[in-house]
Write a structure and sequence with these properties.
Radius of gyration: 19 Å
CATH topology of the largest domain: TIM Barrel
Mean pLDDT: 95
Shape: globular
Order of helices and strands: HEHEEHEHHEHEHEHEHHHHHH
Structural class: alpha/beta
CATH class of the largest domain: Alpha Beta
Strand order of the largest sheet: 1-8-7-6-5-4-3-2
Bound molecules: flavin mononucleotide
Distance between the termini: 32 Å
Number of strands: 8
Number of domains: 2
Number of helices: 14
CATH superfamily of the largest domain: Aldolase class I
Helix content: 40-55%
């Protein structure tokens, strides 16, 4: 496999705007999941010396201006994270005030959410609702670019209806409004995360714009990521649910592309069979628990631990049993004991599972 599968020239063009991306394999923004503990766990599997970006979960531009960064798990961050905070936003004064606050995170870039399909987002005319109103969406990008010292990207869906021509026009509009890159999750709003993502739409957008285009949707294995890159010619992949299940997928992809292993894993191969992955899950869970302990209040940590196992454990043959045991834990030490006991018996991970919504 060759590195040339990751077209680099579009990222290189962004260096002039202060953005360096060498391994465009991104952890997706996910509410309740893409916090510092998952980001640090994923970061421990990134290829040594290759710059990448880590998205936060979506942050409300109505809430950010009135809070202190780091006071909530959603805004807690670690030194040296190259972050892309994701904003749910549509009004200039809130955008400007939110960006002021986010400066504390020293972000590498800012992402605008144009994909969130929940009814609250539709009611407030943000998230995917912006895709139904191109001139307003254009204004939101222009305003964010105007106030942002950092490059601004947009994560979007196919739209409100299944119309790839509309998507392509919309993507061109985002580019001309100043978006630095686009991430496409090619499903319509009402699909949420169900149904097949139309990867061919990613290819159409990629052909229509000159900025980098990142593909997203149902990547479960490194082979899926390579298939997405090959099928669409896109400039990077974004991985959500599988990053929770197998955070080392980023190592597996790097390995497939001929990039170096993560620090401390020199000379080792990424786990590749079901039992090796089961053992790696225990290691990743240990890392996750340690960061939770350093970063969150105990109740916040336990809540996030349960959510992590709920989403990611599905790929383990007996993941439901691990989840059942974790739902009753009262402390992170209990969770460590359960982890030790559960993984004392070799556990197998499956490559793919039915992706629940
Ligand atoms: C629990 C959960 C929360 C999510 N929250 C967000 C979010 O805050 N912002 C966003 O743009 N997408 C969000 N998403 C969508 C993901 O970023 C991603 O587009 C989707 O899961 C498809 O990618 P995947 O198949 O790799 O998981 C969320 C997904 C999940 C499962």
């Amino acid at each position: 496999m060759s590195r040339s599968l990751l077209p680099s020239e579009r990222w290189v063009a962004l260096r002039a705007r202060g953005l360096r991306v060498e391994f465009p394999c991104f952890l997706a923004p996910m509410v309740g999941l893409s916090h510092v503990a998952l980001r640090q766990t994923v970061a421990s599997y990134l290829p040594h010396g290759s710059e990448t970006l880590l998205f936060t979960e979506m942050l409300s531009s109505r809430r950010l201006p009135t809070e202190r960064i780091g006071d909530r798990p959603e805004t807690t961050f670690a030194e040296h994270e190259r972050l892309v905070p994701q904003l749910l936003a549509n009004e200039e004064r809130f955008i400007a005030a939110s960006l002021d606050k986010l400066a504390k995170m020293r972000p590498a870039a800012i992402d605008i959410n144009m994909g969130c399909p929940v009814s609250k987002a539709l009611k407030h005319n943000w998230g995917v609702a912006l895709m139904g109103d191109p001139s307003y969406a254009e204004e939101v990008v222009r305003l964010t670019v105007k106030h942002s010292p950092w490059p601004v990207s947009v994560k979007l869906r196919t739209g409100l209806s299944d119309d790839p021509d509309y998507l392509v026009d919309f993507a061109r509009m985002l580019e001309s409004a100043g978006a630095a890159w686009l991430t496409i999750h090619p499903r319509i709003a009402s699909q949420q995360r169900r149904g097949n993502p139309r990867w061919e739409y990613i290819a159409r957008v990629r052909d229509a714009v000159r900025i980098p285009v990142v593909g997203n949707g149902d990547v479960q294995t490194a082979a899926d990521a390579i298939a997405l890159l090959r099928a669409t010619g896109c400039d990077g992949v974004m991985i959500g649910r599988a990053s929770v299940a197998r955070p080392w997928i980023h190592w597996q992809i790097a390995e497939a592309l001929g990039l170096p292993p993560p620090p401390g894993r020199e000379g080792a191969a990424a786990p590749s069979d079901g039992f090796a992955e089961g053992a790696e899950y225990a290691r990743a869970l240990g890392c996750f628990l340690d960061v939770c302990e350093r970063s969150f209040q105990p109740d916040d940590a336990l809540k996030r631990l349960k959510f992590f196992v709920h989403w990611g454990g599905r790929w383990l043959d007996f993941g439901h049993e691990l989840w059942r045991r974790m739902t009753n834990v009262r402390s992170l030490d209990d969770a460590r004991t359960i982890t030790r006991e559960f993984f004392a018996v070799p556990q197998r991970m499956t490559a793919r599972t039915t992706l629940a919504a």
